[in-house]
Design brief:
The complex is a heterodimer of chains A (438) and B (82).
Chain A lengths: L31 H8 L10 H9 L11 H12 L12 E6 L8 H8 L1 H15 L3 E6 L1 H12 L7 E5 L9 H10 L21 E5 H13 L1 H5 L9 E8 L5 E6 L4 H7 L7 E6 L5 E3 L4 E3 L21 E3 L5 E6 L4 H14 L6 H18 L7 H12 L7 H15 L1 H8 L5 H4 L6
Parallel strand pairs in A: 1-2, 1-4, 2-3, 5-11, 9-10
Antiparallel strand pairs in A: 5-6, 7-8, 7-11
Chain B lengths: L7 E5 L9 H5 L4 E3 L5 E3 L12 E4 L4 H10 L5 E4 L2
Antiparallel strand pairs in B: 1-4, 1-5, 2-3
Classes of the chains: A alpha/beta (438), B alpha+beta (82).
Bound molecules: iron/sulfur cluster (2 copies).
């Protein structure tokens, strides 16, 4: 997906909610004047004071995939920058806005940087003031940095923000890879015995957030926690951007409230549920789900949906973590096992080849998935998938192996019927299309 | 692992380990080797989705684990808190 896709109009929130876009209120490709007209100027705050409190009360979570509490990371950096007789002297914190978006199915960060770069800048500046940060970086691929550079040139208060050109690889966006890139020029994840918040870039407390998270920080700094919580649910407050791809009329970025129904979001993208076999939620490290009754949420919705990740065959609703906000639609008539095998093959190729279990284990998994998808029905293929999955899980410097295993497991569950047919040497996907164009 | 939990953990830096397996020889109770030779927590040592990069050690394994840390040619190992 190119930055050109980024000018796609961004639609309002799904689920019939009146969410006028928060992140794109400045309009397409908003310059500083349009930005200020839409959002007003940033209020001044006492350093180290209320931004942390507002962030905590807002319940904002990271929008890059892992979904950690934004406040906790903020507080950890705040803590480790304070003089502490047990710690080494640490130096001023480093703030990084991560727009590398290595996920091939995601283009919401590119869209955000294209249309609302000033929000990302504001988020960094607000945090820098509160944390006494020394250095700020915006990290993204070359094409995405162009609108950011133009935005920085428009204002005098952001001269301390430097741009960093991210390489175009899947793992380049992992937080430790970002820090490694800053130090060594190689965007490879590194062994993390400690936490970045305590000791990141050159041992300094380092706060890495996805660019969309920074944009929400800018809004929380402006309007406060209550405003933020006016959209979304108690468990998943605020809005988030999602990239909708796959068998869709056109690929689009939508801003949706937390707790949105997957079916509603798809409807906003012009996709009817009867045309959908399954949806990959969260990206290549995400989960396949059947969309009917499914809710996108970072936490268990209190409103009656069963707790925990969705169980197949559950009568009504389940919930699924939106991860990096990717919704990839698998149309009726396409084979989920084949789609998954292709993704695992891609992921195996994107192993940074540093860690043995990942470097050897993912290609082995890709190979077994390929055989399963091809319907070359050896009955022990599934057992071999399970064995290899257990072997790679948790055994890498980053979560690449774990994310890959999650994708595979969700495929085996969601496409359990297909697995049985494939093991018997047949694929039913085309037949199920029931005459639909394939 | 006794009920009191591990005495310490052996952290493996996967980015440098090359899987020749010296550590598994020094700690036969705690480590085996996977399909490709890389150190793997012995069966049953890590329950469920436990942390496979920080292998729990018993008190009796501490001394040989420290040897492994010293002898690992790539400095891939370190002892961390339980
Ligand atoms: S786990 Fe894989 S992708 Fe992650 S650092 Fe190691 S080799 Fe690279
Ligand atoms: S001795 Fe070191 S390099 Fe060799 S297998 Fe063990 S951890 Fe890896």
């Amino acid at each position: 997906m190119s930055a050109d896709t980024a000018v796609e109009p961004v639609e309002r929130g799904a689920a019939g909610q009146s969410a006028a876009s928060r992140l794109f209120a400045g309009g397409a490709n908003a310059g500083h004047a349009a930005h200020l007209a839409a959002y007003g100027t940033m209020p001044r705050r006492a350093p180290g004071g209320s931004l942390a409190q507002e962030l905590e009360a807002s319940g904002l979570t990271g929008r890059g995939g892992a979904g950690f509490s934004a406040w906790r990371k903020f507080a950890a950096v705040d803590l480790s920058r304070r003089p502490n007789r047990y710690a080494r002297r640490t130096g001023a914190p480093v703030l990084i806005a991560n727009g590398a978006e290595g996920e091939p199915l995601s283009f919401k960060d590119a869209t955000l940087l294209h249309n609302a770069p000033h929000l990302v800048i504001d988020g960094l500046l607000a945090a820098a003031e509160a944390l006494g940060a020394g250095s700020m970086f915006i990290y993204a691929g070359a094409a995405r940095l162009e609108p950011v550079a133009a935005a920085l040139a428009e204002r005098a208060d952001a001269r301390s923000i430097a741009l960093l050109e991210a390489p175009d690889t899947f793992v380049a966006g992992q937080a430790s890879a970002v820090v490694n890139f800053l130090e060594t020029g190689r965007a490879l994840p590194r062994d993390l015995a400690g936490r970045l918040a305590e000791s990141g870039f050159k041992g300094r407390p380092t706060l890495v957030h996805n660019v969309e998270t920074w944009a929400h920080v800018a809004l929380v700094a402006r309007y406060g926690a209550d405003w933020f919580r006016a959209e979304g649910t108690a468990e998943d407050p605020g809005t988030r951007l999602v990239s909708v791809t796959g068998n869709v009329p056109s690929e689009v970025v939508l801003e949706v409230p937390g707790g949105a129904g997957l079916g509603d979001v798809l409807a906003s993208a012009g996709v009817g549920l009867d045309a959908v076999s399954a949806v990959l939620v969260g990206g290549y490290h995400g989960c396949w789900v059947r969309p009917s009754g499914m809710v996108l949420s970072t936490g268990a919705p209190s409103g009656g949906a069963p707790s925990g990740p969705p169980s197949p065959g559950a009568p009504s609703a389940g919930w699924v973590r939106p991860g990096a906000g990717v919704l990839h639609v698998l149309g009726v008539g396409r084979c989920g096992l084949e789609a998954t095998a292709r993704m695992v093959d891609y992921l195996a190729g994107e192993s940074a080849r540093q860690c043995g279990p990942c470097m050897f284990g993912l290609p082995a998994l890709a190979d077994v998935m390929k055989r399963l998808a091809a319907g070359s029905g050896a009955p022990d293929l599934v057992r071999e998938v399970e064995r290899l999955s257990a072997l790679v899980s948790g055994r890498g410097a980053c979560h690449h192996p774990d994310g890959t295993v999650q994708l595979i497991h969700s495929a085996l569950e969601t496409f359990a019927d297909d697995v049985r047919w494939h093991l018997a040497g047949q694929c039913l996907a085309a037949a199920r299309a029931d005459g639909a164009a394939q | 692992m006794n009920a009191g939990g591990p005495a310490a953990r052996l952290h493996i830096d996967w980015t440098v380990c090359d899987g020749r397996g010296l550590c598994a020889e020094l700690l036969p109770e705690a480590l085996t080797r996977d399909d490709w030779g890389y150190p793997l927590a012995a069966p049953g040592r890590i329950r469920g989705s436990g942390d496979a990069t920080n292998v729990p050690l018993t008190g009796a394994e501490l001394v040989p684990a420290m040897d492994a840390v010293k002898l690992c040619p790539l400095l891939a190992l370190r002892i961390t808190r339980p």
